[in-house]
Amino acid sequence: MKIFKLILIFVMVAFVLLCTGTYFYPVQYDSNCRDGNIYRYKAGIYQMTTGVSGKKEYKKIGGLSMFFGIKPIICPEEIEKQHFEAVVKSIDSTNQILDWKLQNNGLWISKKGDWAIKEIIAIGPEGMKQADHYISQMGFNDNEPLKEIIDSATFQKLNTSFYKDKNHVYRYYGMVYGGSFSIFPEADPATFEVLNECYAKDKSHIYESRQGILDNVDYKTFRTKNTLTGCFAKDHNGYLQWGDRISEENMKEEYVQKAIKELK
User: Fold this and answer.
1) Residue 72: its pLDDT value, please?
2) Rounded distance, CA 258 to CA 81, Å?
3) Terminal-to-terminal C-alpha distance of the chain
C-alpha cells in the first residue's frame, strides 16, 4: 500500500511538473502530421510558425483533452481542409437559396432578379477547393449591378472572355480567386467580332483577352486561327503569343514551331 502511495505521489508530481513546464516552455509533440512543428504548450496543442520578423508564433489547434492524449490531435492541414470545406458549403448554400438559372443569352438570373455571369473560383491555397461564383456587379463584383447596365435583349456571350450587347462590349478577365467583368469603352459593338478564344477585332482595333487593345500589331495583316492550340497570331512584322512578340529564343520551342506552321 505504501508503495502504491509513493507511485501515486510520483505520478502526481510528474504530472504537475509536466503541466507547469509545458505551460511556459513548449515541448514538441510527436505526431503523424506533415507539419512537424506541433507542441504541447499552455495546456493545449499548438502549431509553431515563424513570422516575417523571424519571431516564433504559436497558434492553438487543440485543447486540454488533446494535451493529455485523451483525444487524437487534428493536424493543421486537416483543420485547414475542414475550414475551406465549410467555406465552399456556405457558398453553395447561398447559391442554392438564390437559385441561379442560365438564360439563352448567357446570363444567369437569380430568384431575386439579379443578373450575373458564372465562374468557378479556387478556395484556399493552391486551389484546395472550388466553388461556383456569380459576378453580378461590374469590376471585381464591387461596382454597379449588371442588371442596371446590360441590355438583356441584345446581350450575347461571344466566347469565354468577350460579351456584347447593342451598347457595349464587355470583357470577363478570369483569375483564380475571382475575376472581373468590365466594359471595353473603346470597342465598337456593331463591328466587334471574336477571331478565336484569345483574339477579337472591331473596325479599328485588334483585342487580346488579357491585355485588351493590341497597339503593337498591324491591323490589316493580323491573322489567327480557331484551330490553334494556344494563343498565337501573326502579322507582317512577325508572330505573337498572347499579346507579345515571340522572341528568337522562344521561336525554337516545339509547341511554338507547331503553331507557326499552322499560321503559315
Assistant:
1) 78
2) 41
3) 97
Q: Three cell numbers at 84?
A: 475551406
- How far CA 200 is from CA of 164, 171, 195, 228, 233, in Å, comes to 12, 11, 5, 15, 11
C-alpha cell at 202: 472591331
Q: How many CB atoms lie within 10 A of CB 25?
A: 10
Residues of the chain with pLDDT under 50: none
What letter does residue 246 receive in the DSSP assignment? P
Q: Can you tell me which residue has the cell 451598347?
A: 167
Give which of 35, 127, 46, 132 is closest to 84, Cα–Cα: 127
- What are 44-55's pLDDT values in tens digits? 777 777 766 667
Residue 175 near residue 141, CB atoms below 8 Å = no
Model confidence, pTM: 0.75
The region, left, alpha or beta by phi > 0 then psi within -120 to 50, assigned to residue 6 is alpha
- Residue 196 CA, distance from chain mean position: 25
Contacts of 140 (CB under 8 A, 6+ apart): 178, 179, 180
Continuous H helices in the chain? 2-24, 64-67, 76-98, 138-141, 254-263
Residue 262 dihedral angles phi and psi, to the nearest 5°: -70, -30
**pLDDT tens digits, 234-244:** 999 999 999 99
- What is the reported pLDDT for 199? 96
* Contact by Cβ (8 Å): 217, 224: no
